[in-house]
Every structure is written in C-alpha cells, then in structure tokens.
Specification:
Elements lengths: L5 E4 L16 H14 L1 E6 L16 H14 L4 E4 L9 H10 L3 E5 L3 E3 L13 E3 L3 H14 L2 E6 L2 H13 L6 E6 L9 H7 L9 E5 L6 H9 L3 E4 L16 H14 L7 H8 L3
Helix pairs in contact: 1-2, 1-8, 2-3, 3-4, 7-8
C-alpha cells in the first residue's frame, strides 16, 4: 500500500484562540505547523485570521496576511505543501481569489456543493440561526478558474454523498480534470463520521483520484481515521477539526494530533511520506 500523506489542518476559523490552542498570527501558525511537520505532516491546510487585537477568531482575506502566514510556514517546514481555504458564506469570491493569486498554493480547498449548515444545543434550540452555505456551480467554477490560474490542485470538499457524486459531473462537464476528494464527516447536518459510510463513499469517487477524510468531532473520530488509513487514503487532522486525542484527552496542539495520525498509518502497515515523496506522489513540482 502507498505511503500515507499527512495533512495538518492548522487553525480553521471562528474557534476562540483564548479558549483553544489555535494559532492566529503567522509566527504562531509557523510554530504550530513545525510541530506537525516534525511529526510527519507534509501538507498544511490553512485559514487566515484577523490580526486585529481580540478579533483572532474572525477570518481575514487580506492577501498580505495570507502571504505572511504561508511564507512563515514554508520557512520552517522545507518542502511544505500549502493547501489554502477558500470557503465564504456568500457568492463573493474576491477575497479567496485575491489570496490564491498572492500566495499560489499547491492545493486549494474547493467547496463542491451547498449545505444547510445546522447545529442544535442540548435543549433542542439552534446553536446559531440556520444558514445556507451556498456553493453554486457558478461559484465552484470561479474558484476552479482561480486555482487553475496559479496551478493549484482543487481539493473538492464533499459534505454529503450527492456532493461527492457531483465531482464526477464537474469533470465530465470539463470544469476540472484533476480533483482530489475530501470527504467532510462530522458536521451535524452533513455526513456522520462513520467508518462504514467512508468505505461506501469510495464507490463514488473517480478511479485513481486522491482522497482523504476530514473528521470533525471528539475521540469518536479516531476509529474512522484508522479506517481511512486501512483503505489507503491520505490522512488529515488538526485543531481545525478536533481538540481531542484518541484517549479522549485534549490536545496541546497540532503536533500531538499528527503524531496520533501517524500511528494510524503505522497500524495500517504504511509508512509516512516525506514532503518530497508527497510531492512526487501528487505530481507537484
């Protein structure tokens, strides 16, 4: 079985850095990425956060913030592959596109379909006002066009089975020709983090396409990580996705999470790919 390529989801967005170990500044992102790099990560999925005091939980689409963050990571993690977020909750893609053009990542996340984004509190009330995460075909095409302009591989974020199946339609329509799949599991109104479902999803991806699973939750996600390793997928975790280790203990940061992910690869009889090996496997110069 192929070596396992590990992705560190460095920081995400909205989680409060005063409550959780999420890096905000470029220096913090670089330090956290280096811990993950030393544990085996080759790819770094990054969000950009506001650099204003007390606003570090909010997103930023300032291209200079994006450049400072990606450059800081590249400096301390030789050969690192940058995977940029592009997610916005409306149809204005100018911010993500500006950042793509500025930093020229090797990979970029492309939300491949719309989702009712819902979550309940324990009392049954909405955790936030129900909202639509709109990703129309027109919006997806704009994102892909910007990725093509800088040579970034589109990583198609699939929140449900229908979105996963749509990726093949995009290829057959000529919208893109080399997408990766990211099966996002654990969002309350999307696919559950379920090992049996993950195996089923592989029936619906394009033959030979690279894939991974983003698993959102607590310690219950780790058997699904093991299943992804057993099935030969790329592997991803980080404080964007979880704050919990397989033991149920809270992580101190990305390094511990990637160490646990590397253990899943080891359990599956797979060694961990170096950044250079990951580049060769993915066809990245």
């Amino acid at each position: 079985m192929d070596k396992a390529i590990l992705t560190c989801a460095v920081n995400g967005v909205l989680t409060n850095p005063k409550q959780h170990p999420v890096p905000v500044t470029p220096d913090e992102m670089a330090a956290s990425a280096k811990e993950a790099y030393d544990a085996g990560a080759s790819i770094f999925h990054i969000h950009f956060r506001s650099q204003e005091p007390n606003l570090g939980h909010l997103p930023s689409w300032d291209p200079e913030v994006a450049l400072a963050a990606s450059d800081a990571i590249r400096e301390v993690c030789p050969g690192a592959i940058i995977n940029q977020t592009t997610g916005v909750m409306d149809d204005d893609v100018s911010g993500p596109v500006a950042c793509l053009l500025r930093i020229k990542p090797e990979i970029a996340a492309c939300n491949a379909g719309s989702l009712n984004y819902l979550k309940l509190k324990k009392d049954g009330s909405w955790a936030w006002p129900p909202m639509l995460f709109p990703n129309t075909v027109e919006k997806v095409q704009k994102m892909i066009d910007a990725m093509d302009q800088v040579g970034a591989i589109p990583e198609m974020e699939c929140f449900d089975v229908g979105i996963a199946r749509s990726v093949d339609l995009y290829v057959r329509n000529g919208m893109t020709d080399n997408p990766h799949y990211n099966f996002v599991m654990g969002v309350a109104s999307g696919m559950p983090a379920d090992a049996d479902l993950l195996e089923l999803l592989l029936r619906y991806k394009r033959e030979g396409a690279h894939w991974q699973a983003t698993l959102i939750g607590r310690e219950e996600i780790w058997p699904v990580h093991q299943k992804a390793a057993d099935l030969g997928g790329m592997l991803r975790t980080g404080v964007e996705d979880t704050f919990y280790l397989p033991s149920g203990d809270k992580t101190t940061g990305n390094g511990q999470l990637i160490e646990a992910l590397a253990k899943c690869a080891e359990n599956a009889g797979r060694s961990v790919a170096s950044p250079q090996e990951a580049r060769e496997m993915l066809g990245i110069n």
